[in-house]
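Intended use. Records like the one below are meant for learning the mapping from a protein sequence to its folded structure. Do not use them to infer anything beyond what is encoded.
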Amino acid sequence: MQQPPNGVPAHQLPPLVWQKSRRSNPSGNCVELAELPGGAGIAMRNSRHPDGPALIYTVDEIAAFVLGARDGDFDHLIG
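Structure written out for the chain above:
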């Protein structure tokens, strides 16, 4: 699968298994991620708008973000 464009409506992607963090709260204020078929990347969507736009990232981009989050690079954004 070729990587879809950023902002594609999530319902236009092939069937995906979406996952959100165990830290998400019951009000649905979270993002969900799903692996695209064939290693084409990772899709991210707003759980409150599951048919809204999906941002598409490469695996390397998600890895850089997750590793940066583990290192505390973004702690200043959450107070």
